[in-house]
Amino acid sequence: MSPGGTLPFGIRTERLVLDQPLPGDVDDIARYCVDPLFEEYLSIPWPYRREHAVGFVAEFVPKGWLRGEEWTWAIRESAGGPLLGVIGVRMPSGMVGFWLGAPHRGRGILPEALSAVIDEVFARTDLERMRWECVVGNAPSMRVAAKAGFRYTGEQDGMIRARDGAVTRAWTAELLRGADRTEQPGWPSAE
Q: What are the N-acetyltransferase domain coordinates in residue numbering (predicted)?
């Protein structure tokens, strides 16, 4: 099965519901995305404003699904509950990306959500590998990828450009279909 245009689908885990970002999530997205860590490590618009969140929910997410270019989910603790963060995967590269609002960090939410997304991508597509990268120094993102079983592949020029279009130095990793999903050795020091 190929990624192609796909109707949005939800995912449930033991503690989480991954579903579509909704207009009611705009204020939470706008509030979370002004985090100074987002300015440093993400390629989202900066300064981030409410209209960016509106465009993300109304345009970016639905078009990504329709075109089969990006599958994006809101992360929640219950159906209809408040948005905790966002996770997505770019097609056909299999590149994952995620963020969590500051009040929700440190509870194992992102590794659980990422593992569920990996399961669905491998079940619903013919992708043989998923990819992850972050700007060098983004230790929290690195820890999430490591916990989900990604294998560190080195520091190199990133595939994801900075918001100004510049090439970034990135830590990179991959997860092959059928690979051992336990934490792999070889990651950079997180200090």
A: 32-174
